[in-house]
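Morning!

As promised:
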Amino acid sequence: MADRAEPGAGQAAEIVFDHVTKHYAGRRAAAVNDLSLTIPAGEICVLVGPSGAGKTTAMKLVNRLIDFDEGDIRIDGRSVRDLNEVELRRGIGYVIQQIGLFPHMTVGDNVAVVPRLLGWPKQRVRDRVLELVELVGLEAGDRDRYPSQLSGGQRQRVGLARALAADPQVMLMDEPFGALDPITRNRLQNELLRLHEVERKTIVFVTHDIDEAIKLGDRIAILREGGVLAQYDTPDAILASPADEFVASFVGADRGLKRLALRRLSEIELESPNGTLDDAPRTTAETTLRDALSLMLTEGAESLVVVDAAGEPEGVLSIHRVSRLLAET
Amino acid sequence: MTGGGPVIPNFGEGSHCVTHNDLFCTDWFTQNWSGVLQPALVQHVELTAKAVAIGFGIAFVAAVAARRLRFVETPFSLFSAFVYTIPSLALFQLLIPITGLTDTTVEIALVGYTLLILFRNILAGLRGVPPDVLESARGMGLTSTQILWRIELPLALPSIVAGIRIAVVSTISLATIAAFVRPVGLGHPIFDAIQDNIFKTELLAAGGLAVALAFVADILLVLTQRVLTPWSHARHA
């Protein structure tokens, strides 16, 4: 214990669900049924599924807001039941859709809650609050404002900063962007991915939106009604080969297109530019395959030229190559 | 019967105003301020403060208990509502055989009347804390004691202060009847003034002081709440 300054500080941790089952009293079907999955340290795992699939329940089992009946959950090899639940939760960042900022505290005080509970020295708390407020894209002056003075998007940024405050190993996020308008939601999704590069936490992210899951998840766990795990894999693998009818219909008939959205032109091998391609549409290597395909379809072209920043051709992508790429698993 | 009260005029002495029992005699007011009115006012403040403080203590414990253990609510609600319905003079009569003609009798009655309002307002304030705020507090690892003191009570403050304001104002009014039991508070000069012939100046002076006290106390409480809840009137920037 001596080398652990405080619970959860620092490195990301692996989370293991080991045959976890949760029954709610008075209901026949399990909320979570024999769930086993391993989330590697530092990855974003998205729990997705229709309502009643137990995804939020599964998430809340990790910080013991709900207690499981059977099995075990281990963070960094330690059972969550070995720790006092208050101590456990202080080491886990928690973000919910309704955000739940404390309306009587300023932004700065909201972010400082857990560090203060952990007894950090004042100066360290102050430094961390400033660092986080700026990291999530707010201004230093926003620290003195009350939640009621912020927009929905700004509030969820504060929610994120607050959850990150004590540098937890693990973050739990329950539909954090579900109540935001599409533009703000998209922006915050991108911010989360950027934040994840900086503060590499293991994140359990709950959503019912498969597109959000594909965009954010390193891995996706698709749950079906009754809390049964239908498939657990990378977004690409799930889109390429859904485990069954349920998963296939859940990810949608356009799963091929969704899969194309996961890859950028820079990630595939291009054909060398030959022949006259003066009429072909042009785009950069940052474009996703999906957008590249869309460009070809709208332009009525069978191929396009990928150009570098200076406008010089780097390679060619044909429509046939796209369909061959999709056929590969 | 008047207990040698120093101020009951027989309308035969004093200024022209006093002997004619005019509506309000300033000279009587100034002459009797330090001897009669001021002590009565101070006693009145003490009676009220004590009653509301004790009532708040009881109601607070009951409301916090009811917040955590639902079964506490109904019995305490029924009890405090029952006390509230007893006419004040009847309640004094009921208590006199037990506690006699004492300050205790007065305070028990006054405390009794604050319970219902304070209990309901404190409990409503605690229950009014949004569930998402409580969930995030729990999820962040606050203990239930920390949630009570750092989250629920500050957020319940507007409702709690609203309850205290009603309790204070109604206790100030009710405490005048305490003079029925003991010659304390502003009720004492009021009772004196209405003994035989109504002495208008004294009645108006003491009654007016009670009204003024209620106003001042209410304003002070409103100001206190504004200082304690800066978030509730933070402007949109």
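Chain B touches chain A at residues 130, 132-143, 146, 151, 154-155, 229-232, 234-237 (CB under 8 Å).

Hope this helps with the figure draft.
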